[in-house]
Amino acid sequence: MNEKAIEVAILGSGQMGEHVLEHLRDCSWVRSITIFDRNPERMETLKQSFDVKTAATLEDVLQSPAIKLVFITASNNVHKELAIAALEAGKAVMCEKPMATSLQDATAMVEAAERTNGFLQIGFELRYSQLYTTVKDWIHRGLLGRVLNTQCTYISSAWGQHASWRVASETSGGMFGEKLSHYVDLVRWWIGDSVEEVYATCAPNVISYYEVHDNYHCTYRFKNGAVSQLTFMMGPAATFKGDPLQNAVSQQAGDGHILRYMIYGEKGAAETDVFPRTIKRWEFGGDDYGQTSAWVQKETWEPQLDFAYFHNTHDQAHDIVRRVAEGEPPRIDPRDALETTRLCFAAELSATEKRPVRLDELR
Ligand SMILES: NC(=O)c1ccc[n+]([C@@H]2O[C@H](COP(=O)([O-])OP(=O)(O)OC[C@H]3O[C@@H](n4cnc5c(N)ncnc54)[C@H](O)[C@@H]3O)[C@@H](O)[C@H]2O)c1
Questions:
Q1: Which of 204, 219, 272, 312 is the most exposed place for a label (fewest CB within 10 A)?
Q2: CA 16, CA 174: separation in Å to the nearest integer?
Q3: Distance (Å, rounded) from C-alpha 158 to C-alpha 98?
């Protein structure tokens, strides 16, 4: 164990809390792990499989001077109260996406971090995932030129749970934050500019018992003129009842699941495609014929690297603990995460009011 290793806590020990627990078991920056969940049975289940301490109350975590960092992996509707309480108790905070169920609550979280001079990082692990960091690197090296246009097609199976907090508007905060915030965050990160306007439109739901939308066609227009389009549909891909963070790519390939980006720049294009496990790049040129495009790079990866390429929550968790232990700031500034959150709520507003929404309406 590293001599600067710290004690951490996990607030909310459902599916995501368990993943974080697994990730932190092999982290040399972690001295000990305490879990707290409002469901004591859930804590008992995890205690049987993991070497963890349990806290009887949230206050026990907040009042422990030894605990320096809390991971908030509870349902979305309690992110704000847990994050602000932890920041005010002097803890560093990693909070899962979406930040909160309203823009006001998300803003209050960022203000609490600024008021307390605290550490707050939101769980946008795709910024740690090799499929997408490769695109960022290509853009950074100028291989695509200025990014002008991105298209994302995402088709997934349903969560399929009638009773889940995810399908109720109040506890979820909307499908955009809960499911699509990762993909909005990526294009902001790649394009590196702010969005001026969004138009999102939804067809009637196929999944009748969802309060949240199960589909969107959404277009973001950036200040620099770039346009990002996201098409999402939940339900048609074959029903998947496994763990969405384990072996999901192998089990879902070819059964209707799609998660594909095309990224077009002035000098070239890139494609990321999760289920065939490919990332490609083209270079544009010109000759007597006119515009030409040459396919210059193609990479693939082995199934055991799905995590590193796709949802790299492992490296994110380790990086955050190290940053807190070493006194470094968050890798993703909370104001940056708040801007992604604003884009998600702007898309929801556009879908509800059936009109384009300018981002400055949500200041
Ligand atoms: N980054 C990702 O790719 C990713 C993937 C899955 C889930 N998530 C996020 O992780 C969070 C949890 O999702 P999940 O799938 O683990 O949900 P889950 O329903 O499996 O677990 C949520 C847990 O939170 C607990 N909880 C609720 N209120 C609490 C409170 N006030 N204090 C302590 N515990 C409380 C519940 O008892 C439950 O055990 C959500 O915000 C979700 O959006 C992120």
A1: 204
A2: 19
A3: 19
Distance (angstroms) between ligand 1 centre and the Cα of 18 equals 10
**pLDDT tens sequence across 194-209:** 999 999 999 999 999 9
Per-residue pLDDT of 112-125, as tens digits, reads: 999 999 999 999 99
Structural domain containing residue 146: 127-310+342-362
| Pocket of ligand 1 from Cβ distances under 6 Å | 11-17, 36-39, 42, 73-76, 78, 96-97, 123, 125, 178, 311
- 335 found inside a domain: no
Name the residue at shortest CA distance from atom 9 of ligand 1.
96
Q: Give me ligand 1 centre to Cα 341, in Å.
A: 18
Would 206 be classed as within a structural domain?
yes
CA of 124 to the centre of ligand 1 (A): 15
Report the C-alpha gap between 142 and 138 in whole angstroms: 6
pLDDT tens for residues 31-61? 999 999 999 999 999 999 998 999 999 999 9
Residue 264 reports pLDDT greater than 70: yes
Nearest to 82 by CA among 27, 9, 164, 172: 9
